[in-house]
């Protein structure tokens, strides 16, 4: 969890305390956090999660692929243009 928090702060300027992008609006902060979590889990292959395929080549995987939530690496365009369902 600490590794993910460090990555999140590195990738999202709103999480850094002393910067011009620091979040003052909670709605914008929540939206930036949701986008950061989405892009990390679905769009960013993690080297330590890769697996060797039958032909001996390494196949990149995202955390969502490792958890069985998807079967491919998503592009940011996919995540921003596909419809989503929000559950309460």
Structure report:
By secondary structure, the protein is mainly alpha-helical. It has one domain. Helix content is 43%, strand content 5%. Strands 1-2 form a two-stranded antiparallel ribbon.
Summarize the structure.
The chain is mainly α and 88 residues long.
Number of strands: 2
Terminal CA distance = 24 Å
Main beta sheet, described?
2 strands, antiparallel
Number of contiguous helices: 4
* Mass-distribution shape: globular
Strand content: under 5%
Question: Main attributes?
Answer:
88 residues; mainly alpha; globular; 2 strands; two-stranded antiparallel sheet; 43% helix
Topology:
Layout: H1 2-11, H2 26-43, E1 51-52, E2 58-59, H3 63-66, H4 76-81
Antiparallel strand pairs: 1-2
């Amino acid at each position: 969890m600490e590794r993910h928090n460090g990555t999140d702060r590195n990738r999202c300027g709103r999480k850094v305390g002393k910067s011009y992008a620091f979040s003052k609006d909670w709605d914008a902060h929540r939206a930036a956090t949701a986008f950061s979590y989405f892009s990390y889990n679905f769009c960013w292959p993690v080297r330590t999660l890769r697996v060797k395929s039958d032909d001996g080549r390494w196949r990149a995987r995202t955390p969502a692929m490792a958890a069985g939530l998807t079967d491919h690496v998503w592009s940011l365009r996919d995540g921003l243009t596909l419809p989503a369902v929000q559950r309460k």
